[in-house]
Amino acid sequence: MSENKGLYIHIPFCVRKCPYCDFYSISDLSLKKDFIAALASEIQLRSDLRNRFDTIYFGGGTPSLIDPDDIEKILDLINKFFTITSDPEITIEINPGTVDQEYFSNIKSIGINRINLGIQSFQENKLKFLKRIHTAEKAEKTIDRAIKAAFKNIGLDLIYGLPGENMQTWIEDINAALDFFPSHLSCYMLTYEPGTKMYNDRKKGVITPLNEDVTADLFMATSRYLTESHGFSHYEISNFASSKTRKAIHTTKSIHNQKYWSGVPYLGLGPSAHSFDTKTRSWNLKDVKKYIEQLKIGKLPVLGKEILNCQQTTVEMVMLGLRTSHGVNFKKFKDLTGENFISYFKSITGDLELKAMGIMDKEHFHLTLKGMLFLDSITALFAGKIFKGEF
After folding, report:
1. pLDDT for 75-104, tens place per residue?
2. 212, 163 contact by CB (below 8 A)
């Protein structure tokens, strides 16, 4: 049987939209009931008992705005209409300020075993700039509640690189997170995504981004501080897994997210969710009301799909591989293209090695920390070569 798939459920509700976020969400919570009914219909329509799924991920939006009873109903339907392994990783994203102690106890009792908390910062001025709905105190209380509910696999999201950020303020945030002994840290550099309020503010000159050299220093310092001083593994450009967790019984890396970076098939449910089966990518309607309307008449809410050719698949394999500490696997590249990675990209990899941006071993080529700073431009070099080829 092929490698286990991942199942993603997009919960499209937020108390309010963060100005930096480009994920699809709405603040009209009156649609929650109809959305849950529509999601139940999509689960049944997409039933897959032939393949095995070993991860379930509730993302958003703010999944913690959904009542535990409704999450339990969704999980029951998933177990009925999909083949789920006996010990799946089941993750839910939670925003501080949306849950109490009872919430954590309830979701743990229904099988959620991994928590991802959108902390972003423990500093009030940064939280206000990011327009988060919680305070630093609420962030700390939320983590305490997750620990009290006996969750062992707890991930924290942090954002750095805000205007005016410096090494001291960023390390203070990291240290505040480390005080809770998280099993996982996601450290995201602030980006200005087209279509977001923060992007528009930047274009208008309302916001002056942090100097690129400073952000580069912060990125390098983050990796070294967490790996060399605190025992974390820097396994993906923004993600760190700890080896010093509270009696963790399995890897603290996000098993689900690793599927995206490894080209493993996944199925997405909910508005705007994407699916991938190694050959075809499809995506759902980016509109809750239309999503609900389509499913009321028994129609899948698919907005579009594309069949990837060998060149597109190869570019994605290289692009995603370079994001990780493992890099690109030579055997996978050979199986897909029939080409030898080392000889095919000799000029590119040789130059990167000379510049201390890449490392070649027996089975992989991966970027160094310095190389990861130039991920986009390096990926473009590989993509240019691939699209000129004849796979």
Report:
1. 999 999 999 999 999 999 999 989 999 999
2. no
